[in-house]
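2024-03-11 09:14:02 DEBUG pipeline.ingest accepted 1 chain
2024-03-11 09:14:02 DEBUG pipeline.ingest length=376
2024-03-11 09:14:03 DEBUG pipeline.predict start
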Amino acid sequence: MTALASPWQIQSAFVTGSTGLLGNNLVRLLLSRGVRVRALSRSRQKAERQFAGLPVEIVEGEMTNVSGFAERLDGTEVLFHTAAYFRDNYRGGRHWKQLYETNVRGTENLLAHAYDMGVRRVVHTSSINVLLGPAGQLTDETMRRTTKDADDYSFSKLLSDREVDAFLGQHPDLSACMVLPGWMIGPGDMGPTSSGQVILDFLNRKLPGIPRATFSVVDARDVAEAMWAAALKGRRGERYIVAGRHLSMAELFLALEQISRVSAPKRSVPTPFLYILAAVNELWARLTSESALISLAAVRLMNRERDRTHFDHRKSERELGVRFRPIEETLQDTVAWYRDNGWGGAAREQAPIASRRRPDMMRGCAGVVSNEDTVR
């Protein structure tokens, strides 16, 4: 959580990816602080459900067609760019075209159109996936991942960040900085995102084993606070890690068990078994034209990034005042939100379609690698 005094007050904002986990929490934060918000969503119907009763100006549009909504950027004081293509990249097959068109070309076009509409302040959502540090040691903002160490998603985010850097170099009157979130969890996850799917599958007892994986988990509300602080205090061209707390999957399951009173899986799942499972899932997906619940790309990333999820927040804490609430609070609020909305636990029979589509013993493993939702 972040609390900072500011010499100026943001009056108006445009938020891309507004119905995603981060986007919707950011919209709510901005509204609570008196900001007029325009919220970009691919689906007006989804946005109207998400923001029912809130004074939000919904803008229907796609990041692959920025020109279609560009005029609605006019009069915006701060642009918060949270939209990204992510989730399907780890569900089998190749998705480079969608990754490039949304994450790279979309960012390039958004910056150009926003600038033409008079926007001079941008907060760009990057990713901890653009960083790579030694196993077991702290990773900071200077430890950039090289392209040879990047999968398609990470490569697209590296290129997206380069678009921001290049645009800053060409437009000295524009101020932009980047926030690098970890694996976000939080209430209001209507997607659900991959993290939400892991929690739902845990609550509904669909996870019989524990994969050997680690990640850095952060409350989406804390990332939203960091985005706000970055808009007020972030330095031009700088990156700020907001990754949260390093956890193993076993530690996450134990915390969920204590909060939800649902027994956690006890058995570890060997990595070789995950590779076999992923191969079978991808074959099944090709035969049925549906997404794989866990892919070879997801398992490779899980294996490659294990114990490389310790992040150094000193810069974000010093310059933005970033603070993180306890993981127990995040999980408590998230579990309560799902149960209150009939998605988990006692209301198991009302679980969303994403939880009921088909049985799979390791559905939640795919979520281990996620730090963003899909295009939102």
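2024-03-11 09:14:41 DEBUG pipeline.report The radius of gyration is 20 Å.
2024-03-11 09:14:41 DEBUG pipeline.predict end
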